[in-house]
Amino acid sequence: MMKYNVIKKQDTRTYDALQGEMKRQEEGFEMIASENYVSEAVLEALGTVFTNKYSEGYPGRRYYGGQEFTDTIETLAIDRAKKLFGAEHANVQPHAGAPANLAAYSAILKPGDTILGMDLSHGGHLTHGHPLTLPAQIYRFVGYKTEADGTIDYKKLEALAKAEKPKLILAGFSSYTRQLDYEKITAIAKKVGAYSMMDMAHIAGLVAGKVIPSPVPYFDIVTTTTHKTLRGPRGGLILCKAPLAKAVDRAVFPGLQGGPLMNTIMAKAVAFGEALKPEFKKYAKQVLKNAKVLEKEMRKYDAMPLFGGTDNHMIMLDTVKSYGISGKEAEKLLDAIGITINKNVIPDDPRGPMDPSGIRIGVPAVTTRGLREPEIKIIAQCIHYALSSGGDTEVISGIKGTVKKLCHTFPIYRRVSSR
Length: 419
Ligand code: DSN
Description:
This protein is an alpha/beta fold and 419 residues long. It is built from 18 helices and 14 strands. The chain has helices spanning 5-10, 12-27, 40-46, 68-85, 97-108, 134-138, 154-164, 182-191, 204-208, 245-256, 262-275, 278-300, 319-323, 327-337, 364-368, 373-388, 393-409, 412-418, and strands at 29-30, 57-58, 61-62, 89-91, 114-118, 140-144, 168-172, 195-199, 221-225, 236-240, 314-318, 339-340, 342-344, 358-362. α14 crosses α16 (373-388) and α16 (373-388) runs antiparallel to α17 (393-409). The model is unreliable at 415-419 (pLDDT under 50). D-serine (DSN) is lined by residues 34, 97, 125, 174.
């Protein structure tokens, strides 16, 4: 692990905050479904001199000189992304998921066009049409919802598509736990003459590890972040069919962004290289197993996971129904025992997003740390007892001790560096 001695000497305030964050990460379990622990190689790449370089344009077509090594790095990242996902084209420059989505929309749509996307409270994402976002001011979003059993009724989706005549049908989610039927969604898009796009940010690592079906062969465009299950640096990625390559590249630069973050692109190349290794398949498989165990254990405690269970890396719980407390209260109780999760809206949540009815719990990060089925059972027990504790300080401090002990058995960076 890096020592950060120069920062320590030069700037104690930022150094102290860094030490605090390192300790926080080591002594607690990260169970926010969208987070993970990158490898030391990815961390090193983020701190390289590539951060000094301006590289507007694309490999072989840059606006400034001195690009022989940035071109090598970006070409490596592109080639590895294409290989990893079997994609016809990859753009590795989006700074994050939101700009990747906005660039993708602008590559194929005109302002005012209609997009059919998943309703936020049913698992969709802010960038899929929340009224407070820029995309929602540019395009007309119509939401589709899940059914009471947690599935999507594709006949209803088709009827909605026929009525609304979208130019784009958007799949993807940030808090939906079931497998989507890519074939059905893209067939509906074809029927109504719409483009199809999947935001696979949450499940990209599971797709890369080939433990769930890939949307890449089906959709015109697939966007993702690189830092969730994919375990790379914070960043975005757009994959698309060859005929859309030019439009996508133009939409990213100069359409939306300026200079790419070359240190991040190096870290993406490193992470894609890691995801191409056989060990990553094992990791992805274990993520699925751990999530299933978490689901089963919570069921034993009568805390019923939403959407009928999980097919991916996370579960959703209605804490009001299961424990008589809001998602915000649940988040606070779990924070107190050293397990970080996030409060989350549930389908058609009667409560607001700052104090919703549920929580989302994910296992990608703890799986990177080395936790397997027996430890997930302990974690489930800790979660259940904390949520049932009524905030009793003795109970909370007892569970916190158990969590801390388990954390010491599974240090983050010794494990990551040896994988
Ligand atoms: N904030 C991410 C998540 O937690 O799902 C999505 O952008």
